[in-house]
Amino acid sequence: MDNKKQRYRFSEAPIWDMQRKYYEEEGLKAWNNDQVPQYITSNPMIATAYAEMIFGFLQDRANKEVSPEPVYIVELGAGAGRLAYHVLHELSQLRAYAGDTLPAFRYIMTDLAMNSIMAWKEHPALQSFIAEGLLDFARFDAVHDTALNLMVSEEVIREGDLKQPLVIVANYFFDNIPQELLYVENGQIHEADVTIEYPDHMESLKPSELLNQISMHYEHRRAAEYESEAYPYHSVISTYQDQAEASYLLFPVAGLTCLTRLNQLSQAGSLLITADKGEHLLDNLKFEEPPELIIHGRGCFSLTANYHAIRQVWEQGGALGLFPPQHYESINVGCIINTDTPMDYFQTRLAYRRFIERFGPDEFYSMKQWVDRNLDSMGLQQILSFWRLGGYDAEFFIQSTQQLSKLLEDATDDEMQDILRGIELMWSSYYEMEQRYDVALDAGLLLFEMEMYEESKRYLEISVQQDEDEIVPTVFYCLAISCFELHAIEEALHYLRELLKLEPDHEEALELIQQFESLS
Is Repeat given among the entry's keywords (predicted)? Predict the structure, then answer.
């Protein structure tokens, strides 16, 4: 039937099933080339902030001299796996500085899509963490599941099994799972149902096409059950009745119940570290318009998260919520300490103050957007400083290689050594994704321009090994010159011959072969 119209409760609308199906079918491909945004919540800078908070939490647990059991860190919807890798990389370095004074920890990557989990298990960058027992995986349905079935250790974590508090990492999570939609008017709560009008021939459309072509309209119906004192989140609803007027409010029932189920896995509470497009200030929820779907990739969307409700619910139970005093621009990062005496966790609170409140991922991303627009006018020291601030991120390196190349002519030896050091640090913490760029290639070509032939040869050979079917002829030429400079004549001839297979009339290669053969 064409032009179908149907009315749904917002949390039960088919858009959520469409999103769920998209992630289950696409797996890691959903994040290829940023179809679904991942940089803002997965870059080394935000991972370092998370690692510092978790490190502070481990210090606080050590000060309590409690259970020798490990602290479990569960990431909800771990996506491409990049955040988990960077957190583990940084946390392992912090642990090395601290020695054996901290409790052990184990990171659990979870997702709804089993093919994502299987891809993580095989990812080269994660193998050392798996072997060390620091990393495990579990399929977890945030809407329904009550236990964690770990795939590597085959351990099952059920209610009350953990003696250490559970650390919960939720990045771009609450805005991707079903939410209720309420409308507040004259101190009364209404539920805002959504009427979806479908396009003609919807059966022939792909999910992304369908999401872009449906139209959504909202209709209110009185929902006095939310105002009942028996309603689990009555106190938050009362706040909205008193202070929110003519407002549409996304209400995170699914998110709150998920957190409750996870919190119940431990006898000692939990620590939530979360980042999202989400409001924690009540004033910013007033006079809100109906929500609009932000479409990503080929078939998914995001909304905003109601951090105000999550914070108020948990603080009423004795937790301590930490959110920035300033307004956020792109991403809001919060931390909720839900333990018996949350104020005792001063190392965790100090880490939040240093790495989120004073200058955090939101401020960094705002600067990154400015840098993206002005990179062509930046000097070498400015680029190196921002690269260092961002934890030697590979994506920024790829963006800046052209400008770095232009600036090499006037670079000092010290600056070129700093570029080399940055490349080495970047590569030591590089998490490969199916992207459109080749980090090793760009690193090798830049080092070749800097006449660092041994280092250039290393990265160019990595590039050749990674993509033998699409080798740029320039790579073989640079490898040949590097080998010549390193007095490896036979290797140089090998690469020249490989170059001539791709470009038989390459004049420089033909001349060099003649020169090399005359020397032999």
Answer: no
Residue type, 18: M
Q: Tokens in use for 12?
A: 């039960």
Round to whole Å and give the CA distance between 251 and 226: 11
Backbone angles phi, psi at 193, to 5 degrees: -80, 155
The pair of structure tokens assigned to 486 is: 């390193």
Strand partners, 337: 271, 320
Q: Give the DSSP per-residue string, 9-49.
A: -GGGSHHHHHHHHHHHHHGGGGGGGGSS--HHHHSHHHHHH
Which residues are CB-neighbours of 397 under 8 A, at least 6 positions away?
Answer: 387, 422, 423, 426, 439, 442, 443
| Burial of residue 404 (number of CB atoms within 10 Å: 0-12, 13-18, 19+) | buried
111: helix, strand or coil: strand
Residue-level pLDDT at 2? 43
Q: How many CA atoms lie within 13 A of 305 on its CB side?
A: 26
Amino acid identity at 477: Y
Q: Are 294 and 303 in contact (CB under 8 A)?
A: yes
- Domains of the chain in start order, with CATH, are 37-177+255-360 (3.40.50.150), 180-249 (no CATH), 366-519 (1.25.40.10)
Type of residue numbered 132: E
pTM: 0.92
d(CA 387, CA 397): 7
Per-residue H/E/C for 322-368: ECCCCCCCCCEEEEEEECCCHHHCHHHHHHHHHHHHCCCHHHHHHHH
Number of neighbours of residue 78 by Cβ within 10 angstroms: 26
pLDDT band at 293 (very low <50, low <70, confident <90, very high): confident
The tokens of 309 are what? 């409700």
Token match 């103050």: residue? 353
Tokens 């349905």 — which residue? 141
**Residue 1: what pLDDT?**
39
pLDDT digits (tens, 9 = 90+) for 343-388: 999 999 999 999 999 999 999 999 999 999 999 999 999 999 999 9
Within 13 Å of residue 154, how many CA atoms lie on the same side as its CB? 0
Burial of 329 (0-12, 13-18, 19+ CB in 10 A): exposed
Q: What average pLDDT score do residues 139-165 get?
A: 96
Q: Is 487 left (phi over 0), alpha (psi -120 to 50) or beta?
A: left
Tokens of 287: 């006079």
Residue 198 DSSP code: P
The partner residues of 278 in beta bridges, in order of sequence, read: 305
Beta bridge partners of 338: 270
Residues paired with residue 222 on neighbouring β-strands, in sequence order: 190
Residues 6+ apart with CB under 8 A from 430: 125, 394, 439
Top-confidence residue, 26 or 477: 477
**Helices H / strands E in the chain, number of each:** 20, 18
* Pairing state between β 294-296 and 332-338: unpaired
Tokens of 441: 């290639």
